[in-house]
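Notes continue from the previous slide.

Worked example: a multi-chain complex. Inputs as given:
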Amino acid sequence: MRNPSTRWLWVLSLLVVAVAVPFIVSGYHVFQFTMVLNYAIAVFAANILSGYNGQIALGNGAFYALGAYTVAILLEHTGIPYWATIPFAAAICFIAGFLFGLPALRLEGPYLALATFALAVATPQLLKFHGIESWTHGVQGILVSKPDAPDFLPLDADQFLYFFCLAITVLMFALGSNLLRGRTGRAIVAIRDNPIAAASMGIDTSLYKSMTFGVSALFTGVAGALGALTTQFVSPDSFTLFLSISFIVGVVIGGVATVYGAFFGALFIQFVPNYADQISKAAPWAIYGTLLILGVYVMPGGVIGLLRLLARLAARSRPRGSGHAD
Amino acid sequence: MQAFLHQLLSGIATGGLYASLALALVMVHQATHHINFAQGEMAMFSTYIAWSLVEAGFPYWAAFFLTLVFAFVLGVFVQSVILHPVRNEPFFSVVIVFIGLLVIFNSVAGWIFTYTVKTFPSPFPSRGWFGGNYLSPHEIGMMLVTLIVLALVFAFFRFTSLGLAMRAAAQNPVSSRLVGIRVGSMLALGAGLAGAIGAVAGVMAAPILYLEPNMMSGILLYGFAGAVLGGIDNPWGAAIGGVLVGVLENLAGAYVVGTELKLSVALVVIVGVLLVRPSGLFGRSVVTRV
């Protein structure tokens, strides 16, 4: 993956697979893969914050909920088209994330994990708060209508929504990986690896850390916005602690501080609960938890770490000499 | 005034539960620098064991102490078997293992004991204790039990050589190993004790909250808030923090935000305290050598 041309080959093949998916599978499975895309954005967001910047945050579900509710409320109360709601969700979540990131500056390691854990636990309660009931409809939640495919495209509504989410996923990953590759990205990683050295190199660590929090919230908010369009319903009880945990789970399963690991993480959080349900109807989450712990034992670097390891092993087993061709 | 006094005292009583859980969290954190997100679920699971024993006809206090033994063994098992493979992994991986445990305990409890809410007996008489106007006998008993647990833990760490060895292992593992302390065993012992303390909180909470797999999530959150308020490197501070959070929660619930937003009080406490005094009320501020 170090080699730029192999990187593009990977991205291209990933894209080809992604475009083919809604024509191969049908109905409910298209919905599931649409959710995979949304989760991939959210997992990437969690990875930017926790993996690259080293701020272990367990409360991203709150920003996912904020993005979802922004879309639902805008669609209900204003006449703006569905696609125009996404930037609003992004902007509101960025501001919220930046503001939450300011106090979070003073929290390190376990403290941040605790504070954000508390945020995740409190989210459903906050959404049920009767003071904002006229907007959120309390426990009932809000129905969101599914966008229709434009007439000139030969797609049904599910397929169209999939491609809409895919387009935004590609955009977000392009933006995110660009951000991480440049000067900003190096600063973000430097703060994780050695905050004091980073500060003495002239990096404004406070600004960068709260900006990273804001960017992560923005990405998560976009994922939540797409999630609301996909599930066509938002309610307080869909944004529990487990949602927040899922994003972090996705980060670890995909690979900490990797870009494309997010897709493997998203596949895990979308499909493994279903499969666990098939294995054991009685205690599906026990299977999920066990797989999770085994995942950490067996592949500490996540799926991407495992792939890199396999690539290295393959390179080593090749006859001597050919490995130095480049 | 009477209503206020009632809220205050019952806040202290529930605060005792948070204090126990906060103490358990701080003990694990001091020894391993990790936060056991599964502490509440382990306590909940132990409480189910107590329930089964009582149902099977054991007298209450026999069931109580057998449960403590179970919780101790569970804590040791988690620390020395489940966490052993990730002891050198980064903080992140350990968080995930704890979260996996949280999910597993929750799910397995629901599987074995079903999700139907169960009543749990209280060992204390139903009426006719002193101060009866303000507190129920169970709340008074809960306070007493919490105080006894705190006193025992304090005495253990202060006056026994094993307690001293455990403190040494937590504070300076390398030097402790040099003087012949088995650091790994000490960590496991600490986790076991933390498990037992958490189980006390679970068993005491069950008659009030009723027993169900999600019983401890609120208490865990308040326990976190208490630990942060008191200082996560100070067990006694954490215990006091737990009681303060209990009082705050009750008063805020009664007079300020209503019961709807009670959990958010914990969030506000955690973030607020960390903003004003990041090391907690009784914590030492950490100075890093550059």
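Summary box: Chain A has a mean pLDDT of 88. Chain A has one domain: 4-240.
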